[in-house]
Here is the input.
Amino acid sequence: EDQVTQSPEALRLQEGESSSLNCSYTVSGLRGLFWYRQDPGKGPEFLFTLYSAGEEKEKERLKATLTKKESFLHITAPKPEDSATYLCAVRNFGNEKLTFGTGTRLTIIP
Amino acid sequence: SQTIHQWPATLVQPVGSPLSLECTVEGTSNPNLYWYRQAAGRGLQLLFYSVGIGQISSEVPQNLSASRPQDRQFILSSKKLLLSDSGFYLCAWSVRGLYNSPLHFGNGTRLTVT
Here is the structure.
């Protein structure tokens, strides 16, 4: 059974203070790892897909990286508008569904 | 561009009452469709997914059911709600046949069973 574990559960940073969120996964055959952003009361918004170890994707202040066992979401010089819950999910070669972690709730303090 | 609509946004229902949540997708054809539930402090749990009209796969045994009467319409139902059915219900779609299409979510329905 696919498993995704995210850490920390919650993270508070000062504006401009860079940090990383972790996503550890166990999957029979990784077809793709996905990062989403979720604002309170809203559905998750797609950010990145990573396919293979060593791959990196960037969007504004966010950079996602992938190894064979985990993925990191690096946030550089964050702003208050980056405050949200960040979700990680994996898809294996056997089906179409995504298995999600419980997320990291990120708060950026002005 | 593609859009996904879910309604209602919030719902308060008594235990034992029926449920019907509807989701429609615009701007794409033959999508894969999904129903997820998100409980407080827990990850998104897949309830049902569909790769075509009338084709429903159930992931979790429960008193909920799903139907896909049209290509871009997905309905989540229950005959009798339980307290444990409370949660945030999310509909999503992905591109069928695209190797690693991400899921695109609607804005959810907050269901409270009292």
Q: What stands out?
A: The interface with chain B takes residues 4, 31-32, 34, 36, 41-46, 49, 51, 87, 89, 91, 96-103 of chain A (CB under 8 Å). The mean pLDDT of chain A is 95. The first strand of chain A starts at residue 3 and ends at 7. The CA atoms of residues 4 and 25 of chain A lie 4 Å apart.
